[in-house]
Amino acid sequence: MELYDVTIIGGGPAGMYAAFYSGMRDMKTKLIEAREELGGRLLIYPEKMIWDVGGFAPVRCDRLIGQLAEQAKVFEPTLVFGQQIKGLTRREDGTYLLTAETGETHWTRTIILALGRGILKLEKLEIEGAERYESANLHYTVQELEPFRGKRVLLSGGGNSAVDWANELEAIAASVTVVHRRDRFGGHENNVARMKSSSVQVRTPYAVTRLHSGDGQSIESVTISHIESGEAERIEVDAVIVNHGLKSDFSGIAEWGLEMDDWNVYTGGKLETNMPGIYAAGDFASFPSKVNLIAGAFTDAALAVNSAKLYLEPEAHYMAYVSSHNERFAEKNRALGVVEDEGPQAQ
Predict the structure, then answer these.
(1) CATH assignment, 122-245
(2) Do domains 3-118+250-336 and 122-245 have the same CATH topology?
(3) Name one GO molecular function term (predicted).
């Protein structure tokens, strides 16, 4: 069994960038992802447009995943798929032995937890018999926009995903109705304002209380009820999208002894956890100055890698040299046909 300098658990944006940046730091790196592909939470909405990543304005989720995955592989880290890490043992020499639910083991000197929200399970609509429509027109994710063109769409939810999809669908659907049980939406302020100023019909505080079908196979109309008065209204629909959030499963990692709540592990400013040699990045990390954006996940990843490097080599530089001055890129630039500027010549 090989010993790695750092093992990254999680293949979302934070994990992928950590794999790249640890290569810049000349660390022997392994990345373990529970799914069979990289992307993390972004895989839930591949056609969603992302506007807030530096250098991309805007970019589709699937393209962003592809770019991040390509970057993650630059320094050829070991990639392991289909393994959900559960067990942790610290050996006498201070190294860690990780155990997957499948029984495989991994040996590492440091760990970066880029778990996002863990193994995510979608919150289902709590209406008896709702599952019968999941193969027809009840949706919990949106993989493609085109099937909703010209349709009467009802969206239930009030977080970022519900707001974002309402804005995306407004341009192509016949109508979009958003039903939320609270008056206040949890999405980014600008996106909420955009939704409310468009043709999207916003109904608050309401909840979906009944699904109606003529043939027993697809939903033809929905009853929504006012949360306070109970007043009911029936709306004809062609499709229902439910964005009620996600349940999180961190497997056995929650039993390691980390200081954490139901969703996050608490870290210091250098992304260190309360356990030596274990760091966190991305959505899983919680600290006072946290920026909950994909762009913030990249900074988290770099800080976590730098901390892991200094844990292993206290005399190392506190960060990687930037790519324009990093020797690790010299050969790669030559392969790309890039002629490097050697500065002004002596006269």
Answers:
(1) 3.50.50.60
(2) yes
(3) NADP binding
How confident is the model at residue 257, as a pLDDT?
A: 95
Delimit the domains of the chain by residue range. Answer: 3-118+250-336, 122-245
- Ligand-binding annotation for 4, yes or no, is no
What is the per-residue pLDDT for 284? 94
Cα distances (Å, whole numbers) of residue 192 to 158, 179, 202, 286? 9, 13, 11, 25
- Sign for the pseudo-dihedral over CA of 333, 335, 337, 341: positive
Is 266 annotated to bind a ligand? Reply is no
Question: Tokens in use for 135?
Answer: 């193969």
The answer to which of 65-69, 131-135, 137-141, 336-340 has the lowest mean pLDDT is 336-340
Q: Which two tokens stand for residue 84?
A: 């959900």
Please write the tens of the pLDDT for every residue from 116-137: 887 767 788 989 899 999 999 9
220 is in an annotated binding site: no
The whole-angstrom separation of Cα 285 and Cα 233 is 42
Is 311 annotated in a binding site? The answer is no
| Residue 236 assigned as binding residue | no
Give backbone dihedrals phi and psi of 284, rounded to 5 degrees, phi first: -75, -25
- CA distances for 165 relative to 151, 191, 192, 198, 346, angstroms: 14, 10, 11, 13, 59
* Residue that is written with structure tokens 């863990």 in the block: 118
Buried b (16+ CB within 10 A) or exposed e, 92-117: eeeebebbbeeeeebebbbbbbbbbb
Architecture of the domain made up of 3-118+250-336: 3-Layer(bba) Sandwich (3.50)
Question: What pLDDT is stored for residue 313 in this prediction?
Answer: 97
Contact between 56 and 64 (Cβ < 8 Å): yes
Q: Is 33 annotated as a binding residue?
A: yes
Give yes or no for residue 96 having a pLDDT over 80.
Answer: yes
User: What is the structure's pLDDT at 343?
Assistant: 46
